[in-house]
Amino acid sequence: MQERSQAVKVNVAPRREVKQSQEESRHLPINHQVVGRPLRNDGAKATAKSVPVSMMKIEPKSGQATELRQARGKGGEQHGSAGTAKPVHEGTAGAKFTAGPGAPPAAPLLQVVPPETRVRVSVRTRPRRTLSRLGRRWFGGTGAAPVAAALLALALLLPALIAWRTAQTPAVRHDPAAAQTPSAAVPPAAEPRSEDAARAEAPPAQPDAADAAAAGGPPVRVYLTRTGVVETVPLEQYVTGVLAAEMPADFELAALKAQAIAARTFIVQRLAAGETSGTGNKAADVNDTIEHQVYLPRSELEEWPNRGKGAELKKLREAVRQTAGIVMTFRGQPITASFFSSSGGYTENSEEYWSLKIPYLRSVPSPWDAAINPNNRETVEMPLPQLYAKLGQKVPEPVQTALAALDQGETEAKAAASKLSADKLFKILSWTTGHRVKEIRIGDKVYTGREVREKLDLRSSQFTLAVTGDTVKITTYGYGHGVGMSQWGANGMAKEGYTTTQILKHYYTGISFQQVSHFLK
Predict the structure, then answer these.
(1) pTM of the entire structure?
(2) Is a pLDDT exceeding 50 seen at residue 57?
(3) How many beta carbons lie within 10 A of that of residue 480, not counting itself?
(4) For residues 23 and 44, what is the distance between their CA atoms, to the nearest angstrom?
(5) Cα separation of 301 and 299, whole Å?
């Protein structure tokens, strides 16, 4: 066994002349050869030298042991080993130092010091705990074989131990949405988002939330407007009914999961606040119309497999199951998770469609809608008199005169047409941040874009107008109020590889995620 050692220090404190000590010790036939720098005797005073042990080869010499004991007897017992030339390695009786290849010529390395001269030899060793030594200590064997055997036994037992431990510990479910990875970056038209927001993940369901999800969550009372009946279903069943009514089942799974979280957040906010408006005093929490969220009753969903829609229903239930118990929050409270069908390129600030500014309902780019929605653009036509009637005003007199002139010959018709151009009948005064009509003058009144949309029953407040003869053509872009998440935009993002969390964090600015159990017991 090899050991790491310190250098040997030989401290000589002479009392008499060294010459006399040499004469008295000549009879000792000790033969040493130099390995490195020799410890020489220059006839004056001995000096301390350090000889590296790694350069020595130690060989026992039985003949020297007797002579050394005789020499030692002359001076009596000394501190350490005064005349034994004790080698560095412990347990060695005698020593012969043999020079390696290329060493200088042999020279006396160490001579026995007479009794008149005190020699203190200090030997300090600090053994290295090598693998073999540890093997002997731990397993009673020698070398690395026992350690290797023990490691092999441990490697064989460890998998069984892990399996047993796993069986004893209940698994914690995680949100699979976090495992998805985007395959494409946001197009240049999209608003840049921070890396942290792009990579953030919805939190996993906690054990108590998982238990609640298994039971379907707290009850939700739904007022069915068509039948006047209040249907009470578990939360997750309600979310499934909303998902089936609000989003096509052939959308990407990530988009369906985003819609499920938005629908769950909407109802949890109402339940937590005890809100029952719009239920017709029917002791319900929510109704089944677009006033709240469109909802398909449980009985209708159970008929889907019989109508050949079993795969679609299974996909919707999977989206709800994978997001069970997760809601969106802002500053620790459930958000107003508004959503709509599609946009004309941007979503809308809340205060530009409603009167309240909500910090997480900000206008963001949504270029995916027009790319994948075949019905993102729609043109409707109506006679000019009908347009004024729907807006609640009489047809202006100049317009009546021009309309009457259309049937009075070609010359009069051309003059009338010039007076009935769109830029003379309608004037858009301002636009919203989301590129929708903010204010427009029609006749002698000024309307908001929302008012025109609702009065004329348009798909969107992002529109343009043109007049041909006595007919007005109105082209709309997108579908819905434009506040919150675009459903077609979410599907477009999902097709490009964005995760559910990334979709939600894009359309709802600065939101976080929390468990339903945090708000509802």
Answers:
(1) 0.60
(2) no
(3) 23
(4) 14
(5) 6
